[in-house]
Design goal:
Low-confidence stretches: none
Largest sheet: none
Number of helices: 13
Helix content: over 70%
Radius of gyration: 19 Å
Mean pLDDT: 80
Number of strands: 0
Structural class: mainly alpha
Strand content: under 5%
């Protein structure tokens, strides 16, 4: 994904230093790919920033949960750990009994370095790759969203409905408000989700999934 992001960023007009710099300073995964794609489509800076803010707003919630769990932390460590938060690290740390801020930093810094390394590799080898390979990186954003969405869609029909509604809104609004359609559709979808998604139902599904995974591990161990 890091290499795919670099390919889209270079195509959007960013130079290698800007491309790698965004991975180091922003580190937003899907947010970076969206930003690079919007640059390709000629979006304004304000539009890109607001879209990234909406897409990455979940990190505020994740960091709040982490800060409430960790022990013996301080403001400087919290700021540092907040920069490294991603969905996978948050999920892993949330399921761990360990509550040390240093453990969380250790878990988080590995994917951060991997993402930055991916960007470095991307800008280094991009010109040496066949055109068909570099063009294929353009679908990496869609592949990432599918990988994030499918597990959640399997858990709840209401989430599936919410995603469909948001997608339809985004498609229709782009003919009216252009690049602002993603922001507006996401916000409307989130508002609708607060009314139609049952958190208790999702919690039960997650618990069942964790129990099932534990059962499979025990069977494999035996």
């Amino acid at each position: 994904m890091g290499i795919g992001y670099a390919a889209i960023a270079i195509k959007g007009g960013l130079n290698p230093f800007e491309t790698v710099g965004m991975s180091i300073l922003v580190y937003a995964g899907a947010g970076q790919i969206i930003a690079a794609s919007m640059i390709v489509n000629g979006a304004t800076i304000i539009n890109i920033v607001l879209t990234s803010f909406v897409v990455n707003f979940r990190y505020f919630i994740m960091n709040t949960v982490v800060f409430n769990k960790v022990t013996e932390s301080n403001t400087k460590l919290n700021i540092l750990s907040a920069h490294f938060v991603v969905d996978e690290c948050f999920a892993l740390f949330s399921l761990m009994d360990e509550s040390s801020i240093w453990t969380y930093l250790g878990v988080s810094i590995i994917p951060y370095l991997s993402w930055v390394l991916g960007a470095i590799i991307g800008v280094s080898v991009l010109n040496m790759l066949p055109v068909i390979v570099t063009n294929s990186f353009n679908i990496s954003l869609y592949a990432l969203f599918i990988a994030i969405l499918i597990p959640n869609l399997k858990r709840s029909k209401t989430i599936t409905l919410m995603v469909i509604i948001t997608g339809i809104l985004n498609y229709l609004l782009q003919f009216v408000i252009g690049n602002w359609s993603l922001i507006v559709a996401t916000l409307i979808g989130a508002i609708i989700g607060t009314y139609i998604v049952d958190d208790k139902e999702l919690d039960l599904e997650v618990e069942k999934e964790i129990i099932n995974q534990g059962t499979v591990k025990e069977e494999n161990h035996e």
